[in-house]
Amino acid sequence: MKKTVVILTLLMWFSASAWADRKAEGDRLYLQFARWNFENNTDSILAKKDEAMAFFADNWQWEHYYFVANLAVQVELLHDGNVSACLRECQKLYKFATDHFHDYGRASVQAQMGWIFGYIGDHQEAVRQLRESIASFRRLKAENAVVVSVYYIYAYMLELIGDYDEQQRIIDEGKRLVEKLRIGSALPEVNELVADQLMNTEALMKVHSGRLDEARPLIEQIQQKLADGKERSVYEAYRAIAEYQLASGDYRHALETTRRMERELKGVQNSGLQWGLNLLRTEILRKLGHSDEAYDTLRAMVDRRNSVSVSRLRRQLSEMDSQYQIDEMRIQEQKSHFWWAVSVSLIIIIGLAVFAYFRQCTARLLARKNQELADALARAQESDRMKTAFVQHISHEIRTPLNIITGFAQVIANPDFEVSTEERNRMLADISRNTNEITTFVNELLELSESESQHPYEQNDDVDISALCQQVVGETDNSAHLQITVESHLPEGYTLRSNADALHKILTRLMSNAVKFTSQGSVTLRLTPLGDRLRIEVEDTGIGIPPEHQEKVFERFYKVDTFKQGIGLGLTVARRSAELLGGTLTIDPAYTAGARFVLTV
């Protein structure tokens, strides 16, 4: 265990040491490129950029990677003047940063694109790109020499579009960042350069906005730094002085200052700076009244730019021709790849469709089989429940009448018992009544079994409903002397196409049920036409049915009062018969004076 810990510790130490060495080497390379840029050593930058970028990418030093990549684009632009090629490189670099989620890289590339758009004179687009870049740097809290240089470029572009308020704010923010980076900076000369550039830009801003009194102290500081040899941005310093002198009316000194600016531009490949210098000199010559010399300067400047533009245009046309041929080859290759991909995709789609179809068929078949099994299980469970309920009810409901029949029969048949004629007749009546009850139980069971397996009733009878109801009332046992009436709202001679036998059985059970649970009062059989249907109500003034039992009484073997006579099948059979007639049998919950059964057929 101890050996393992020691080995792991040594491995971690060696890994950390190797990482520190790679980081130190990366920082050294970064500083070397920054100094080459400061010294305008473009040859070294272009010669070493690929090797340095590969090292930075391998070691995940992405800030250094994007610094060198953007620097190479800037150098190639100043060297060749091929703006379109540089923008394409920037777009590739921006896409690379986006694909790899490098927010710092995207911000730095946007700053580079802002610089390029400013170089070609599209100042509005330059400002937009630089504004987004600065916002990203703020969000990332990035603070280094690259970021502070972006502040200078942004401030310079704001001056060109005349947004002096925003320019002053950016200059102040850039100054604060420069002061913060001066402490322990590895590139103090870069920080000093940006500080001088910001001061020169602020002086120009105040001159162009007409605040010469505010510009004077800054111009004096710039002149002092030039005299002491401490000015890092010499060309921008002379430009600020010349612009101030021009605005102050000191045209001769302004012309002399432009000559110093021209000396600073010797050997510098930057047509934009040269163009700006010539424009400034032309304006000064015009103010001095040297119109011919101003014209010659302007004409030479235009001819030089046209010559450069023609040469650049020829080079770009040649590049475009080469690029066109390359693009044509790529298009042909992409077409080949496209059709190959389409073919493979179609094969995959067809295969997936066939698989999905067979899977769906299998799923439907499986679902149907599962449903059939579930239905069979439900029927088996219901059958088992019915069997259990049947045995329980029959054992109770039949045993009692059988005991009465057996007991009374034994008494009557035993000669040892002296039974009066009156008692004998009563016993015989009880035997007959209990025999009828057992017969009724058996009939209800047979009818339930028949109704469960039967198809809808044939309805071929023209039933005289009024006569049928009178017949049912006449057959009803009214031993309690109830008031039984038929209340008909049917037109005279009304008949219903139905099944007379089924209707008779349903009404008989409903009337029997009403009489059984009504000790006093009345039972009403009410007939009401409903278009092509008929509503029959059997209404009593008996004990009624509580609301929570009103649907359960239609279940098999269910009884509200278990002590009441019967096996609880009458209403079940009646509802099933109504359904086989295409009708319904329900209880009216609104009626509370007893029970009201509603048959609709």
Overview of this protein structure:
The chain has a five-stranded mixed beta sheet with strand order 2-4-5-7-6. It has a two-stranded antiparallel ribbon with strand order 1-3. Strand 6 (584-587) and strand 7 form a beta hairpin. The chain is of the alpha+beta class. The two termini are 91 Å apart. Helices cover 73% and strands 6% of the residues. Among the domains are: 45-120, no CATH class; 249-333; 458-600, 2-Layer Sandwich (Heat Shock Protein 90), CATH 3.30.565. The model has no long low-confidence stretch (mean pLDDT 81). It is rod-shaped and about 160 Å long. The protein is built from 19 helices and seven strands. The chain has helices at residues 2-38, 42-58, 62-80, 83-99, 103-119, 123-140, 145-161, 164-181, 188-208, 212-228, 234-248, 251-264, 271-288, 291-397, 399-413, 421-453, 465-475, 500-516, 570-580; strands spanning 461-463, 483-488, 496-498, 522-530, 533-540, 584-587, 596-600.
Query: Any low-confidence stretches, pLDDT <50, length ≥5?
Result: none
Helical coverage, percent range: over 70%
Tally of DSSP helical segments: 19
Query: What letter string, H or E per element, gives the SSE order?
Result: HHHHHHHHHHHHHHHHEHEEHEEHEE
Architecture of the domain at 458-600 in CATH?
2-Layer Sandwich
Q: Could you please say which CATH topology of the domain at 458-600 applies here? A: Heat Shock Protein 90
Looking across the biggest beta sheet, what order are the strands in?
Answer: 2-4-5-7-6
**Straight-line distance between termini:** 91 Å
Provide tags for this entry.
6% strand, 7 strands, 5-stranded mixed β-sheet, Heat Shock Protein 90, alpha+beta, two-stranded antiparallel sheet, 601 residues
